[in-house]
Amino acid sequence: MAKHKDAKHDKKHDAAALVQTVTGSGDGSSGGAEPHGGESAPAKMTRKEFEKELEALQTELVKLQLWVQHTGAKICVLFEGRDTAGKGGVIKRVTERVSPRVFRVVALPAPTEREKSQMYIQRYITHLPAAGEVVLFDRSWYNRAGVERVMGFASEEQVTGFLRVVPLVERSIIESGVILIKYWLEVSQAEQTRRFQERIDDPRKTWKLTAMDLQTHSRYYDYSRARDAMFAATDTAISPWYVVPSDDQRPARLNCIAHLLSRVPYEDVKQPTIKLPKGQPKDDYVPSDHPLRYVPQRY
Questions:
Q1: Domain residue spans in the chain?
Q2: Fold for domain 47-262?
């Protein structure tokens, strides 16, 4: 029993240590979302170092998954930030070793004409988690406070009304038993420019570019103003925002996942010992003489 408690303590200690690099303190205080200048840059994390740390965190995500299934917990995580901030990269690392039946990614397209006629948040509410689910929103209802405001898709009256009401909606979500966690990934203007150019130059990434994405590049500080107003209205004690500096992608992904794990009170769920049964003997099986079409062995 003591060994189990020590292991659990070590896990929480390691996660807490990584949280410090995300928020600057254990209480989620960011000290301002804009990147700080004039600081000496730490040595870049190598791929080998990153993958070692990621393996440990993904092992914990599997434990979290088992706990969610066992207890019927409901977890909802929002990922927000400017284009190229790294939302998709974090979500990919969260989900690549867990079940898509438990960890569900929601990335909604532009609303249909029918959805435009609905209450704004209605199309998001239908995707909230049921018991035993973790839902990851790749952009969320906060589109109204960000892209819709900056790009002129919503009036100031609509944005003001949204910012006034959404804390009440989130309180209702939380009081229904959902663990709600909100992340803003913060990318500097210089790094955003570099990533946009990389997408232009790399044919594997051009699909990520839309005409609207290119317009957002010239509105960096419009997004800063929208973000600041959003934080002022919706960074509440019951539903706070957590800022993830994301210029350096590898530590940003690790920091975010470690923090996510620290925000959920999961515990190890005892699993039965797995034993592989013996293979079936060939006995009287005779391979078919049906001609098979093999894929060409080009590699």
A1: 47-262
A2: Rossmann fold (3.40.50)
Q: What would the 3-class secondary structure string for the chain be? A: CHHHHHHHHHHHHHHHHHHHHHHCCCCCCCCCCCCCCCCCCCCCCCHHHHHHHHHHHHHHHHHHHHHHHHHCCEEEEEEEECCCCCHHHHHHHHHCCCCCCCEEEECCCCCCHHHHCCCCCHHHHCCCCCCCEEEEEECCHHHCCCHHHHCCCCCHHHHHHHHHHHHHHHHHHHHCCEEEEEEEEECCHHHHHHHHHHHHHCCCCHHHCCHHHHHHHCCHHHHHHHHHHHHHHHCCCCCCEEEEECCCHHHHHHHHHHHHHHCCCCCCCCCCCCCCCCCCCCCCCCCCCCCCCCCCCCC
What tens digit of pLDDT does each residue of 84-119 get?
999 999 999 999 999 999 999 999 999 999 999 999
What's the rounded Cα separation, in Å, for the pair 266 and 240?
20
